[in-house]
Amino acid sequence: MKKKLTTVAFNGTAEQEEKLLAVIAKYRDTEGALMPILQDAQEIYGYLPVEVMRIIARETGFALEEIFGVASFYSQFSLNPKGEVAIAVCLGTACYVKGSGDILNKIVEILGVPADSTSPDGKYSVDATRCIGACGLAPVLTINGEVYGRLVVADVPDILKKYQ
Amino acid sequence: MVRTHVLICGGTGCSSSKSEEIMSVMEAEIAAKGLSDEVKVVKTGCFGLCALGPIMIVYPEGTFYHSVEVSDVAEIVEEHFLKGRPVERKVYHEQNDADVHHATSLSETSFYKKQKRVALRNCGVINPEIIDEYIANDGYQALGKVLTEMTPEQVIDTILASGLRGRGGAGFPTGKKWQLARILVPDADQKFVCCNADEGDPGAFMDRSILEGDPHAVIEAMAIAGYAIGANQGYVYVRAEYPIAIKRLQIAIDQAKEYGLLGDNIFGTGFSFDLKIRFGAGAFVCGEETALMTSIEGNRGEPRPRPPFPAVKGLFGKPTVLNNVETYANIPQIILKGVDWFTSMGTETSKGTKVFALGGKIQNTGLVEVPMGTTLREVIYDIGGGIPNGKKFKAAQTGGPSGGCITAENLDVPIDFENLMAIGSMMGSGGLIVMDEDSCMVDIARFFLEFTVDESCGKCTPCRVGTKRMLELLDKIIEGNGTLEDIDKLEELANYIKSASLCGLGQTAPNPVLSTLRYFRDEYIAHVVDKKCPAGVCKNLMQYKIVEDKCKGCTLCARKCPVNAISGTVKNPHVIDPAKCIKCGVCISSCKFGAIIKE
Predict the structure, then answer these.
(1) CB contact (8 A) between residue A138 and residue B439
(2) Is pLDDT at B97 greater than 50 in this prediction?
(3) What ranges do the domains of chain A cover?
């Protein structure tokens, strides 16, 4: 999966860094700690900017390249900050067969934010995600974790209105 | 004295339809009516019939409520729990040809009648967050029996004799795997037991449901595996996308430790076993065993060449057994009920049951477990309720991006590992996506290939580059620029990738294309020769047309068209100029007379 580095300026706080250092300390003696550290780091910062990877490199001794290699390999790791309104449309098979592709297109059309990106003002992010396992409700999308299921394209404008 | 138990599904599907809120509102209503001592609300795992969620079953009578909403709760509590009159409009009614009859309990519905629940036996029955409920239903008895009455060799012999095969896809005999991990490196200082819960096949969610509904079964089985191969550390590698499953598994591990069923000196036998959870991070290739282990080690999840096999050199270079969630869920039952019971189900080569996740164009989307050897027709029509809206069955896809399609002519083939291979598909992890006449098979093949292109880890060339070239050929065909030669090229390339890729992902990536070419070659030919998409899916191959007889000349479509491609005068039939039309579909959705068609 191709990933682009973010153009949004990093504005991590000292408090966040403190939390990150605590996480790194917790995993100091764990074998294969890089994945859990990155997962917790993403939890703290919301994404994984290069500045955060530098801190991890400095503290753990992993090479920055190695960390970037892992962060860019897995789709769950985001190198870009998510929008205030984080929209994810499931493109798993069950949802796709039931027309989730059209739903994604409608969202992109209404918001003008291309799939797998964040709007320049940071308000919306639109992602095409892998199966979230709610196949019984297909097609499904989530906005900030709230699940909307059994959708038709005509439902999209009303759902988006709630988050304006 | 509790007289009524209300079981509400707390699985991902029903939680997404607010079942958690329903539960808390219901408890408040029950308390308000002073029934707290008589009516108990139980949060369970998935019942399987996700299409009708949220699902709620009221025992002892077994009244089956479906599509329950928060606004129904007060009425159900007042009418049913207080006055003893079930709220009929929310009770599940089965539609027969002749009459609408009332299904009194869950097990009587046609959705459940043909099922045989082994791996799912506790899902929708117990509260997965309370270990006592699992123990009350024979939980941890198998572990007790293994540790106190059996040698590791006897455990392995039992699993071997049961004929249990891996439920994750490839169908390798589980007992054989355990045996190899036990004997191949006799002087290993450490061994590992791993559980593959990185359910990456889009459309499959049985592993998630088992972890959500019966996490202790997996923990117990992993401890049994640990005893059998001589390992005392286990790892569960679970998708980070499954928050509920992760939470319940963690609760279960903590409770098992508290009860001394995990940890040091289990049952005072000297056997110790500990379990850790590791999160996957959304990489399909990590479902491949060596890639999964590389990922637990903290690296990019790239597969390693085999041999050495994990039984010799697995996680952190130590002998390792890796099984899938559903495989583990069968183990305690085999130990307790015996080999004869297990082998009484299934076919000659495939014993036991298999869980399928029914999805796509099917009435009863959800989770079903049937004995091996059941036909696809029974699964789709008798259990799944057939295709909605009177549409015609076209194909079912099993095995996800690694599998293939099964067509109408093979609906009566008994499902087992060998039979599915023979018809060009595979068991896979059990995702079963049904497609009707509106699905374009070239588009579906492209969908799966796009998935594998995206998920290819990039380590070996055939998979990294080959699948990309295949996708380009498919795009060319879908856009209407394909030639017959492209179809041959596609097939040739597919066979190269199949034989030359490093791991299972690449070796199976061309399957959806090969299988659709085998059964639906005429659809490919229609795309390249006639420049038509028979199912009306591929945009570039469609023409929008106004049916003259139906058009009233209201001018609405002409006004809505963003590119002014529609012309005509008031009260006279309009015409679409195909040269201008961008096929956006606005005209179709705005026409009140159904006068515009795609062909």
Answers:
(1) no
(2) no
(3) 14-73, 85-161
Q: Tell me if B480 sits within 8 A of B540, measured CB to CB.
A: yes
A85-161 sits in which CATH class? alpha beta
Q: Which of B300, B432, B444 to mutate to test the interface with A (most CBs of A within 10 A)?
A: B300
- Which residues of chain B from 362 to 401 reach within 8 Å of chain A, CB to CB? 365-366, 397, 400
Chain B contact for A106 (CB, 8 A cutoff): no
pLDDT tens digits for range B129-171: 999 999 999 999 999 999 999 999 999 999 999 999 999 888 9
pLDDT tens-place string over residues B555-598: 999 998 888 999 998 999 999 998 888 888 888 888 989 899 88
Q: Contact, B223 vs B273, CB < 8 A?
A: yes
Q: Which residues of A touch B440 (CB under 8 A)?
A: none
| Cβ within 8 Å, pair A73-B457 | yes
If you write DSSP's letter for every residue of B139-208 in order, what string do you get? TTHHHHHHHHH--HHHHHHHHHHHT-B-TTSS--BHHHHHHHHHHSSTT-S--EEEEEE---STT--HHH
- Is the preceding peptide bond at B60 cis, omega within 30 degrees of 0? yes
Q: Are A129 and A135 in contact (CB under 8 A)?
A: no
Put simply, the answer to whether A130 touches B278 (Cβ < 8 Å) is no
**Contact call for B205 and A70, based on CB within 8 A:** no
> Do A97 and B435 count as a contact with CB atoms less than 8 A apart?
yes
The model's pLDDT over B371-403, given as tens digits with 9 standing for 90+, comes to 999 999 999 999 999 999 999 999 999 988 999
Selecting from A73, A93, A140 the residue whose C-beta is nearest the C-beta of B283 gives A73
Minimum Cα–Cα distance from A73: chain B residue = B300
Cβ of A1 under 8 Å from any chain B Cβ? yes
Per residue in B192-251, pLDDT tens?
999 999 988 888 899 999 999 999 999 999 999 999 999 999 999 999 888 899 999 999
Of all residues in chain B, the one with the smallest CA distance to A95 is B360
- The alpha carbon of residue A162 is apart from the nearest alpha carbon of chain B, in Å, by 18
The pTM score is: 0.91
Average pLDDT, chain B: 93
On whether the CB atoms of residues B354 and B120 are closer than 8 A, the answer is no
Cα separations in angstroms, B175 against A127, B159, B225, B231, B596? 42, 5, 10, 15, 60
B522-547 tens-digit pLDDT: 999 999 999 999 998 888 888 888 99
Q: Which of B22, B10, B6, B56 is nearest to B248 (CA)?
A: B10
- Confirm or reject contact between A122 and chain B (CB < 8 A): no
Q: Do B202 and A131 make contact, defined as CB atoms within 8 angstroms?
A: yes
> Do the Cβ atoms of B316 and A70 come closer than 8 Å?
no
**Phi, psi at residue B559, to the nearest 5°?**
-75, -35
Size of interface A-B (CB pairs under 8 A): 132
The stretches of B313-396 forming alpha helices (DSSP H) are: 325-337, 339-343, 376-377
Alpha helix segments (H runs only) across B73-151? 73-75, 110-113, 131-136, 141-149
Q: How many CA atoms lie within 13 A of A115 on its CB side?
A: 14
* Angle B119-B125-B127 from CA coordinates, rounded to 5°: 105
Domains annotated on chain B, with CATH: 4-109 (3.40.30.10), 131-342 (3.40.50.11540), 353-436 (3.10.20.600), 441-528 (1.20.1440.230), 543-598 (3.30.70.20)
Q: Does B69 touch chain A (CB under 8 A)?
A: no
Q: Six-digit token pair at B117? A: 């629940």
Confidence of residue A136 (pLDDT cuts 50, 70, 90): confident
